[in-house]
Automatic annotation (TrEMBL):
CDD domains: AdoMet_MTases (cd02440). InterPro entries: SAM-dependent_MTases_sf (IPR029063). It comes from Jiangella mangrovi. It comes from the Bacteria. GO terms for molecular function: methyltransferase activity. This is SAM-dependent methyltransferase.
């Protein structure tokens, strides 16, 4: 949340939370004055304040551009990364900002995975089960093709779930946080 709020334009700005999950982030942003459209492709996520929609091909109901798009842990899940990013680029105002809070699973080592899952040999099993997840490198490359990347940081990630600060160093590059600006002119 801190990374996202630190990089948003000031409220009230129009924000799209793309792949919003339970919509908690959208609620928190609304509470501090943002105008947020929150979408998720999973019908189980439907509730007031969350629209069921695919990022790929999404059209804003009011046909107004967004000042910022937030993708929190959603991009690695999308089926068609190119289609999703083309959509997001088209939804942003010129100079609008894409804020991505992600994780780069290709950076994970066996030891950290075993610690996270509490069992030896976890990483190959996890990779096999999540073959469709996009890598951090693939996401950065796909974003860089359409946007100008303004900042990119490799940060710890798993400790948030294990609430174990001692993990931070061991997995210090698993998280990936980047900010990218929509180009002023089509490239
Ligand atoms: C790991 S959850 C993250 C949820 C939330 N953003 C968060 O940070 O907790 C990924 C979400 O992305 C959604 N998602 C995946 N592909 C999507 C797509 N093409 N369009 C919209 N949402 C998508 C999933 O349904 C899921 O709710």
């Amino acid at each position: 949340m801190d990374f996202i709020t630190a990089n948003l334009p000031p409220a009230p700005a129009r924000v799209l939370d793309a792949g919003c999950g339970d919509g908690r982030l959208a609620d928190r942003l609304r509470a501090v004055g943002y105008t947020v459209t929150a979408i998720d492709v999973d019908p189980a996520r439907a509730r007031p304040g969350v629209l069921v929609a695919d990022i790929c091909g999404f059209r804003d109901p009011e046909d107004e551009p967004y000042d910022a798009v937030v993708c929190s842990l959603s991009l690695h899940h999308v089926e068609d990364l190119s289609c999703a990013l083309d959509s997001l680029a088209g939804l942003l105002a010129r100079g609008g900002r894409l804020i991505v809070d992600e994780f780069a699973h290709e950076q994970a080592g066996g030891a950290i995975a075993d610690r996270y899952f509490g069992a030896a040999g976890s990483l190959p099993l996890w990779r096999d089960k999540h073959r469709s997840f996009h890598t951090g490198d693939a996401m950065v490359e796909a974003v860089a093709r359409r946007f100008s990347i303004a900042s990119l940081a490799r940060v710890p990630y798993l400790y948030r779930y294990l609430e174990d600060a001692s993990l931070r160093e061991a997995e210090s590059v698993l998280g990936l946080q980047f900010v990218a600006d929509r180009r002023q002119e089509p490239s």
